[in-house]
Design brief:
about 210 residues; alpha+beta; Translation Initiation Factor IF3; Alpha-Beta Plaits; 2 domains; five-stranded antiparallel β-sheet; 3 helices; about 25% helix; about 40% strand
Length: about 210
Amino acid sequence: MKELEQVCDFTIEVTGEGVATAVPDETVVTLGVSDEGDSLGELQADHALKIEAIIQALLALGVPRENISTAQYTIEPQYDFIDGKQVFRGYRAVHLLRVAIDGAKDTGRIIDAAVANGANMVSDVTFRSTNADEARRKALTLAVRDAEAKALAIAATLGVSLSAIPCKVMETPGRSFEPVMFKSASIPAGDAGTSIEPGTLSFRASVRVWYVYG
C-alpha cells in the first residue's frame, strides 16, 4: 500500500481502475502420477519408473533438466468403513513434477508426452509473463489517470477548481495479477492431442485519490 499524504480540508475523493495485458511467455505445468495399491513397495517402485519415464520424455522434447522439480510427493493409507469399522484398503501415492516451459505453444505437446509415459494427473497449468512488472506499472498509471478524469468531471459539474496535484493517493489492495490456469484432477491418455490456449494475462490496479477543491 502506497500513500502520499498532506492535509486535506475540502476534498473530492475518487477511485480509479486500470487494466493492462501481456502475452504469456512462460508456462508452469504440474503433472505426475497418482495410484493406489496394496503393497507400498510395489507402489513406490512403479511410481519411480513412471516418473523417470516422464522426465526422460520431457528432456527429449528439449525441457532443461533444471526446469523439472518435485512439486509433491505423498503416501497415505486408505481405509473403507464396513459395518462401522475402519478396514485398511491399501495405499495412495502421489508424485507430481513442476515443469517450467519457455513459451506457451508447446504446453499441450508436453502434457501429451507425459501422459504417454505414465502421467495420469495434471494439477494445474499456469501461464506467466516476464513483462509482468511493466504491465502492473502500466495498469497503475491508467488507474491514476482514471481517477483524475473522474475528479475533473466532478469538479466541472460542481463549478469548482481542482488542485493540480492530489493531496493523497492510496493504492488499494487487490488481485493485480490474473494468471491463466487450467485445473484437472486427472488426464486420461487418448489419441487426440491436448490443446491448451494461453490467451493473454490481465493485470489490474486500483487507487483512491483525494483532490483539494476550491
